[in-house]
Design a protein that fits this description.
By secondary structure, the chain is an alpha/beta fold. The protein contains 13 helices and 13 strands. The structure holds 4'-deoxy-4'-aminopyridoxal-5'-phosphate (PMP).
């Protein structure tokens, strides 16, 4: 298929000069986030859940969406969803909860709220790239602290950087993306005790590990736990949430756009969040498949499979671009992290799929290795 050449409008020829004059140089230096096309491919590149919803549940969601008042703005506080979340998480009263258009939006809101001139964002690296990018959007200075061997948190180096930089905001993704490992709770606690500002413990992959910092929010004035529904079967909704002391949430709500969660997502989420048993069953299947897949991948020659507590696995191979290309030719999309960070040279990140998808992956890898 030949690519369509976009039409040029002569009157717009002057736009480039004005863009160069007024758009912030750090924004012009960025490349917009590219989402890989996945048409007809087995999609193991974005850490989504591989399970489609059962038909009866889809019908329930359709009915809920049919009832949405399309001519009205959505409920600005998303109160139905918030109540369903409080029940699902058994959140004690007295804690603040804020919902975002994906946890990506909450990361951005947090950065914007804390972006005093000169303020610093600190995070270990490699980690989720949106921490650095959101800091940049907000005009904050980002400081990365290299992870230790095996991608463990280097707590001594983190504490030294906290002492030196006095960050307004620290991000710790645990389990970490893209490395997959959870950080030691004792290391996270050291960071919490030393940090002068807010510490965000991002538990995007919390459904796939046993440890959570959520129960500690009520004992810890500078802790915010961030979560998302994207990794447990609802990526299409764009729904993330954060729990912290009400004082934090009150300030974040001032930065949040009044109608940040659209009514369709709210309607669907209210149905889905009542399906705790189904969500738990899917997570259990993913965990069992993760063990099986990691075991099989570890048998491939000249590769390193890193310990994971997420719904994906990081693997170092002899030639990541070639392996990624080989898998793509076999109809499987994975994330090639080579070139994304020096510590990730020749690394692939592979999302755990359905049992059949994982079998297809293993068969294709045997042809590639
Ligand atoms: N945090 C981490 C650690 C992630 O890996 C991701 C998704 N890649 C997010 C947050 C954002 O997820 P979402 O915006 O879909 O909630």
């Amino acid at each position: 298929m030949s690519a369509r050449v976009p039409e040029r409008h002569p009157a717009l020829a002057g736009a480039a000069a004005v863009v160069a004059a007024v758009v912030r140089p750090e924004i012009r230096a960025l490349t917009a986030y590219a989402v890989a096309k996945a048409d007809n491919l087995v999609k193991l590149d974005a850490n989504e859940s591989p399970f489609p919803l059962p038909g009866a549940l889809r019908a329930k969601i359709a009915a809920a969406i049919a009832d949405v008042a399309f001519n009205r703005y959505p409920d600005g506080g998303a109160e139905g969803v918030a109540a369903a979340l409080r029940t699902l998480l058994a959140l004690p009263g007295g804690l603040g909860l804020i919902l975002g258009n994906g946890s990506d939006e909450l990361i951005q809101i947090i950065a914007l709220a804390l972006a005093r001139p000169g303020a610093v964002v600190l995070a270990p690296e490699p980690t989720f790239v949106m921490y650095r990018i959101s800091a940049l959007y907000a005009g904050m200075r980002f400081v990365g602290v290299p992870l230790a061997a095996g991608f463990a948190l280097d707590a001594d180096a983190m504490l030294a950087a906290i002492e030196r930089e006095r960050p307004a905001l620290v991000f710790l993704a645990s389990p970490n993306n893209p490395t997959g490992n959870a950080f030691a709770a004792s290391d996270i606690e050291r960071v919490l005790r030393a940090a002068p500002g807010l510490v965000v413990v991002d538990e995007a992959y919390g459904a796939y590990t046993d440890e959570s910092f959520l129960p500690r929010v009520r004992d810890c004035a500078n802790l915010l736990v961030l979560r998302t529904l994207s990794k447990i079967g609802m990526a299409a909704l764009r729904l993330g949430y954060a729990v912290a002391a009400p004082e934090w949430i009150a300030e974040l709500n001032k930065v949040r756009q009044p109608y940040n969660l659209n009514a369709l997502s709210q309607a669907a989420a209210s149905v889905l969040l009542a399906e705790g048993a189904l969500l738990a069953q899917h997570a259990a299947t993913i965990k069992a498949e993760r063990a099986r897949l990691c075991d099989a991948l570890s048998g491939l020659p000249n590769t390193t499979v890193y310990a994971t507590q997420a719904n994906f696995v990081l693997m170092r191979v002899p030639d990541a671009p070639r392996w990624c290309g080989g898998l793509r030719a076999a109809g499987i999309l994975v994330k090639n992290l080579h070139d994304s960070h020096p510590a990730l040279a020749h690394c692939l990140r592979i999302t755990i799929g359905t049992p059949a998808e994982n079998d297809a992956l293993l068969a294709a890898l045997k042809g590639t290795a």
